[in-house]
Every structure is written in structure tokens, then in C-alpha cells.
């Protein structure tokens, strides 16, 4: 399950009003009219049915897919790794509760996709999101800064998304994503408002911790990082991921489809790789030109004249002549 759906349990009961029954009128009669008793029983039955339906709906709706904004910036992931190590050094039992390096992400939306047909509908919905998101961004990059630590009920530990002008566009993207998926008939979202965060540990990853007395995340474990700046990530990709399917070899979730909504930040290694790629492409182009030149009949005739000038070639030795066409291909 995605961390947002695990964080807090939701009260499934709602208060429904009973019909008002007067059991004492101006004449002091204390008998309850039969019609009011009947109405009371009907209202109680309605209330019971509504509660059962609500419980069934909540039980049936179990999100198994989510929209993910991957967090891959080395500054951020490295900082979180240091935080995780600092916590496990204080309590080694919590090592099993830590989120793996390749799994860091922001959950944009959770949903339920029950079969391959619904997965394909989800992929279509994701692809339809791209122009809406680009309209929200208006050609600008959306930078997501991370600072500080928070928890959901002391059960889920996460790095906070810092306050700023980036919040509103992200909320708009989450809202349009929810609406797009719901319009296609896909159960999406949950009862709580969207709260972007970057999870780094969950006690639910190791249920045996509760039996060993670890029932909550102690704030003292991360107090040194309570206001720590972890860095910035630029929004450039949104993935449709499975919560249940086997993760990729790098630790990231199984991804059904993706959309690119911005350019990935270019680092030094990216520049080096691009330069090497351009160099290889240039050399490959030159080799191709040389090969084409050597395969021309006039070029081969010229080479033969220069190589065999002044020599008489006997018919018996013609089989030994160099076939440039064969050697070059």
C-alpha cells in the first residue's frame, strides 16, 4: 500500500439523525404513538444499512496502483540515507522499516485497477494528463524543495516538502489527475486531502516491531534533522506504478507507463556522456563517408593503378586481385 493510505485509519461511522419522537404531550400522556415507533424502527434500519454499505465500499476499495513522482537527485537520496543510518544506529531494529534507495517518490494519486483492461484505461488517463499539466506549468520548470521531518501518527516518517510557490501548481496537478481518472470510471483518491511528502520509513514494513515494543517512531531519533535541508528535485516525470507487482532491479516500483512533463536536470556526468555520444556519432559518420568513397569504382581503379603500376598482370593471377567491394562490405 502507498504510504498515504497506510498513515491514518479513517473512522467508518458517521452520525445519522434519528427521527424526533415526542413521548410526552401537553396532556401528560407518556405512551409513544404507534406510528412514531414504526418510523423510529425504519430510521434505525436505514442507518444500519447506510453504515453497512459504507463499510463494504471502504473494504472493496483497496488502492493497488498510484501515480508517482520519482525522487532521484543524489543530494536528496544521499541525505535521506544519512538520516536513515543515524536512526538505525540508535535502534538497529528499525533497519527493516526503512524505505529502499530506489523507491523514493511523491505519491500524487492512489487508485484501484482490478485487471489489465482497467490498467490500460489508467494508462490512457495518464497520457491524457500531459497537456493539462503542461498548461498548468506554462513552460516553466516546477522545482520541489525538501526540508524538515514529519510523521503520520508516528507510524510513517517522511521528509517534508517545503512551503513556497511550488505548492499550488502541484495541488492543481493532483486535482486534475484525480478528476481525469475518476471521469474514466476509475476509483481514485482517498478521503483526506493531498499532502505531498517523501517517505523514508514505515513501521508497517516490519509488523514484528510492535511485538517487540516498537509502537511508534520516537521523535528523538531524528531531532537533529528536524529542519534539515535535503535539496531540490525538478518535476520531469510522472509514472503509473503498481503497489503489488515485483519491483525493478534498481528498487523502483513496477511501472506501467510514464509521461515526461519537464526536462531532467543536466549534471556533469550527463554533459560528459552527451559529449562522448556526439564524438562517437561524428567518428561513425566519417567512417561511413570513407567507406562510401572506397566503394566507388573510380576510387578502386585509381588504387589499383597506383598499387600495380609498372606490373604486368597475367590472367592466371587475376584470381589473386583484391576485390575491394568484398573486403569493404
TrEMBL record:
Residues 63-259 form the A-kinase anchor protein 7-like phosphoesterase domain. Binds cAMP-dependent protein kinase (PKA). Interacts with PRKCA; only the cytoplasmic form is capable of interacting with PRKCA. Its main location: cytoplasm. Pfam families: AKAP7_NLS. This is A-kinase anchoring protein 7 isoform 8. GO terms for molecular function: protein kinase A binding. It is found in: Cytoplasm; Nucleus. The keyword Nucleus applies. It comes from the Eukaryota. GO terms for cellular component: cytoplasm; nucleus. Keywords: Cytoplasm, Nucleus.
